[in-house]
Amino acid sequence: QVQLVESGGGLVQAGGSLRLSCAASGIIFADNGMGWYRQVPGNLRSLVALIAPGGTANYADSVKGRFTISRDNAKNTVFLQMNSLKPEDTAVYYCNAGGFFPSRPGPYWGQGTQVTVSS
Known about the structure:
Layout: E1 3-7, E2 10-13, E3 18-25, E4 33-39, E5 46-51, E6 57-59, E7 67-72, E8 77-82, E9 91-99, E10 108-109, E11 113-118
Parallel strand pairs: 2-11
Antiparallel strand pairs: 1-3, 3-8, 4-5, 4-9, 5-6, 7-8, 9-10, 9-11
């Protein structure tokens, strides 16, 4: 059974930083593309960043230069470091496993973590 458990969301002021973590179990983590997607009410879930098994990363244009995705294969964990946050980054952020570079999500999703950026 695949489980993805996110943590690190919360409320932050514009210009601040947050670091999201996603701990995975039930998959061969090192063999999987891992991604972060986000969703606001009324919109489709969209790619934030995806990291391939080899470490190559792809980012949405709106977060390039501000967000960094990374992975620790020894800990089965993927991270999203978010800097210079903007109110428009407010969303529920979902961890995804089994995706394909550059942006196709896999079949496994976490429960989501709320990120709220105040102006």
